[in-house]
Prior knowledge:
The protein has helices spanning 19-40, 42-52, 57-60, 62-74, 78-84, 87-107, 111-139, 142-173, 178-181, 183-197, 211-229, 231-235, 244-264, 280-309, 315-343, 346-363, 380-409. By secondary structure, the protein is mostly helical. The chain is globular, with a radius of gyration of 21 Å. Mean pLDDT is 82; it is low at 1-16.
Amino acid sequence: MSVDDRSSEAATPTPPPPKSVNIVIVLLLVATFVMILNETTMAVAIPVLMQDLNIVASTAQWLTTAFMLTMAVVIPTTGFILQRFSTRSVFITAMVLFTAGTALAAVSPNFILLVTGRVVQASGTAVMIPLMITTVLTFIPEQKRGTVMGFISIVIAVAPAVGPTLAGWILNHLEWRWLFYVMLPIAGLALVLGLIFVRNITTPRKAPFDIASVLLSVIAFAGLIYGLNSLGEAAAGDTPVPPWVPIVIGAVALALFVWRQLSLQTTDSALLDLRPFATRTFTVGIAILLVAMAALFGALMLLPLFMQNVWHASPMDTGLVLLPGGLVMGLIAPFVGALYDKVGPRPLVTPGAILVTVALILLTTLKADAVTGEFWMFTNQEWKIVGIHVVLSLGLGTMMTPLMTSALGSVPR
Length: 413
């Protein structure tokens, strides 16, 4: 593995980012934190929404499925968006969409409008995360990227940990609409601060926009996401079509999408330039990061459902079980980022991968017939989840920052 490789640009010192760039990065971190926090509250809320809105599990699942489908459709177009429009306009548009979607979800009188609000939220979220990563890679010197990526890891780690706990507290004391009411003032504040402080730090340029590529990406990523997401529902016989149908359609469309991008990138007109995959460090780093993120979000989505549906734990207890691990990952992220700047990725990624493997194996030993208790009276099985999740978080915390920084930093400008 060559994840120790550094970009050839390291030899050229980069001036420190101007104050305006620092302000943009801080606001991007805050906005991204709110957006990820919003998404992870849904895992705990779905059982409550099923009861309150009188819907079945397969219907309620569309609150997350629609969100992911929208992300999958919008994200491939962000390369064009970030080149064609200024930083300020992209940031403000993303925050307006997220805030409007949050407001719509909060006042929705029925399930259809609630899903619509989630789709609008996802449209803003899909643009914000690539904007944050691109800003860091463009303006932060390579020798300082590990530290900044550490703060990004805090956002990615702490928001999913706080989300279930916050949702549990709200659902124990208030109605589900407060999940969105709580987000509104924070999102609104980020929007106002963006209007005041965010300045254009990039120069928009005319970028090619291939409609055929967009259509293929919509079919490919939407088909794969929908098909994979419906595997669980298919086991209960709740899907309108067998999951293999959208998966096959998505895979064929993805193959055509890749072929078209390879053809168009020779003239720099591809919607999604695939040439970074020619860099071995990037390809290996992204592959490992994919597994790490699957472990992170897989645990954050499945554990709440397991505890509430199998153990019949309360939403509050479910959130509290996941909180220590997320806080641990957030606490170590800045130190991991600073350490990466000194020692590189390998000494961090290898032990982190071992910890993640051990934690995932231990998760398979959980018992379905465990009895839950209050936080101060947790049973052995609940404390076991706390311990396993802390180990998983330690491993992921030592992996994500080095993998993101080394993989993205290895790509030529």
